[in-house]
Give the backbone structure.
Amino acid sequence: MSTYLLINSDTLLAKQFVKTIRPSDDAVWELHFAEASVTEERNNEAPHLSVCDPEDDWRLNYELERAFLEFGYFDDVILFPGALKFGAIEAIPSRTINEQVSRQITSVIEIYRILADKLRSHKSCHITQFLYEESYEFSALSSLPMAVNGALRGLVNGLRKEFLTLNVDIDIEFLKPDYKDFINKEFSFINNGYTDLMVDGAPLPHQPDTIIRWLIDRLRS
């Protein structure tokens, strides 16, 4: 049974990905990020859950130390990018982009520093650094996630050689959200659970085009 350390897994896209691996609850430790004012309260939500302010280096180190002490080792460490906070869609000031990129990268650098220390005694481990989806190309929203992606990619590429000496591989993957383009008649529900949805006791069809026709027929009846 593989053991997972999921870092910053409380965002919507991260939750969608976690559903795809469906690990046993006993094999997963999750580290969520939150404002410092709510971390203590949320740390009591589940036994294998840590919550900390990513800008608090001491607490970040403490929570990761707690995870490694509890599990001993992790087969897979998965890091998710943070939730983006957009301003006006028409134009995101460059200062906002720089601030968010700097905030995320500073936290990620500290996480990798701690991981390098904790993984020295591991026989092997695999790290996956997720980036925002590759097709983030609509309106002004593309500039911020692409800036974060570029910084994360550069950081990981720079760390690969060092981590290989620890027998730790680092891969980069893109998050794939469950929203689709309605114009192209591609439908996928946020919780990726439409195949289990029931309406008046009847299950929804599985194929997108069939769903559309099915819903239209229901509305007309």
The chain has six helices and eight strands. Residues 8 and 32 are 5 Å apart (CA to CA). The longest helix spans residues 94-118. The beta strands are 4-7, 28-33, 49-52, 76-79, 125-131, 168-174, 198-199, 202-203.
